[in-house]
Amino acid sequence: MKIKTNSNEIKPGDTFIAIIGKNRDGHDYIEDAIKKGAAKIIAQYGEYNIETEYVEDTKVYLENYIKDNYGEKIKKLKLIGITGTNGKTTSCFFIYQMLNKLNIPCAYIGTIGFYLQDEIITLENTTPDILELYQLLIKCVDKQIKYVAMEVSSHALDIGRVNGLEFDYAVFTNLTIDHLDYHENMENYASCKQKLFFMLKKDGIAIINNDDKKSDLMKVHHHNITYGFNKSDYQVLTFKMNSDQTVFKFAYQDKKYEVKTSILGKYNVSNLMTMIIVLNQEGIDLKNIVDKIPTLKAPPGRMDTVSYKNNTIIVDYAHTPDAVFNILNAVKEFSKGKIYSIIGCGGDRDKAKRNKMTHYSTCLSDLSILTSDNPRNEDAKSIINDMLTDIVKTNYKIVVDRKEAIKYGIDLLQENDILVILGKGHEDYQIIGDKKLYHNDKEYVLELCKRGD
Which CATH number does 69-295 carry? Predict the structure, then answer.
């Protein structure tokens, strides 16, 4: 595509569209685009010294342009969109892995990047902006990919990043507190998630977690399939877990199936069920799916474990109250020693969840180490003060510097203890002020463990 919305990407001869967003106005970057060689400008206002086309709404213009020029091509793909507070990445990654294991070409778009065959591209957002997203989808078509499993965030649904797409499957995982700095309340947040289900094809399928309180809100399509521990079309009957295996049974159409996996956690049962249903609805035999589940791996930064002497260190992306609760609860199931957790909260983001995350980390750990995450333009100590609002338990230690906090946590480990480092998972950076500094929790853990040996 020679149309660009980012002036930094302009090459001589390109057309620059000045999109007006919530935080930035593309018109402020028109002169920069012209300096870089833009041959044409699409704008809503202003006077410029090159060819300019004025439109009422540049965003609508872009959406229509992409749909008119590339919509038919993208219809060759089967799109699987997954939305929810937690579980999007893991559910998508399971679908991506399993389809490819069955020699059915599938790509993945989401938090951990764009996965296409042997290529992995880092993405700025969970769901890329509409122009980048279409470029990725066109690349999938050109590479003869049949399926795309993609995370669809509430932000993307709200600002129209997936406008013009029609999904074959829309999946709802859950809705828990997050992003209230953006959505203001849970009603708005839920309404944004619901938009995905209005984007299903006529013959599309909605797959909905029946254990979630907002499940009924997502049942707007005529073809809904439910899953969960509650009464559902695909119902989980039993669940057991030890330190190296999860075993669960589910029923579908009066038949029962047993699943064994090294992927731990009750919450991952739900993530596996989304994959099972999508593939089964695509005509793949349930026994064939179940037999291959033991070969699946969790995505990077999700329950990522490192053995250290007789202890276990877990790095995980959990950054919402529900996710913190789920992973620490899972760890308690197989812990033989003490549990230490390291937790922080991002700056310039939802403040309502901060003390809730601390509540779960102190209640479910022997000691919770409070540290910085991505403080951005907030003071890290101020963020930690918010994390301690109304916290009754005193089993916490404040270590503001994240590296020092990780070192402190590792030094506490003695015999069969577990250290859970939460919040960043696969991320390889820490944002302090306006600077993006390199930092990777797992890499630093491995470095310290090597020194410790």
Answer: 3.40.1190.10
